[in-house]
Amino acid sequence: MGRYIHNLILKGEGMNLDFKYCISDPGKIARTLSAFSNSEGGKLLIGVRDNGSLAGVRSDEELYMIDAAAKLYCSPEVEVRIKSHTINGKTILEADVPRSDFRPVRAKDENGRWRSYFRQHDQNFMADRVILQVWRRTGKNRGVLLRFDETENLLLSHLRREEKITVSEFRQIAGIKGRTAEKILSDFILCGLISYQAGEKGIFYRLSNEFATAG
After folding, report:
1. pLDDT of residue 211
2. Which domains does the chain have, with CATH numbers?
3. From start to end of the chain, where are the E strands?
4. Cβ distance 22 to 64 under 8 Å?
């Protein structure tokens, strides 16, 4: 088992792996549970420092915190599978978080508000209204009918020229309402034409690799 955990740690934190030295706040850990559930799933290693060294968990408190985060601070509840590993006398907890079939999975913040997160590289980011639309509509198995009017063509032309765009920028250049901009962007994502990423200005949208290459 020691080699198994060692090999995981060698991979480093990333899209599907997060290290936690300890868990003192179920609300904070719920964000990672939400992000993993809404993305590709992932593992939490509790008792591991950011540099990959082993600290071990101090008590059963971490188990309680994970359970509370999954059941009380996530909606819907997250099914977390926990394994305990003992390495050199230190206990490391491995929490396996599957990708949810019922997205979005929301996490309660310190003010009692429910927010949804997604995972990018080794960080968690809060989803915007466009991404929430995509998740909700993905679960309904409905087809998407795309219209290529002036607004849609304007969006594609901008992305070919400038590479990326935010919701507010799309609203401004197209002269449309926020809800309309969000609907068009979510349609394009569902059809595989564009993808979303987190950046310095928040969430932005760009042509998908397949569509950009084809264009």
Report:
1. 66
2. 2-119 (3.30.950.30), 129-214 (1.10.10.10)
3. 17-20, 42-46, 74-75, 81-87, 90-97, 106-108, 114-120, 123-126, 164-165, 194-199, 202-207
4. no
Contact 27, 69 (CB under 8 A): yes
Whether the pTM exceeds 0.70: the reply is: yes
Nearest to 174 by CA among 146, 153, 160, 199: 153
Q: Which residue has the tokens 């962007």?
A: 185
Cα dihedral 69, 99, 104, 203 in deg (nearest 10)? 100
Q: b/e map of 55-82 (b: 16 or more CB within 10 Å)? A: bbbeeeebbebbebbbbebbbeebebee
Cβ-Cβ contacts under 8 Å for 198 (sequence gap 6 or more): 118, 120, 123, 125, 204
pLDDT at position 212 is 64
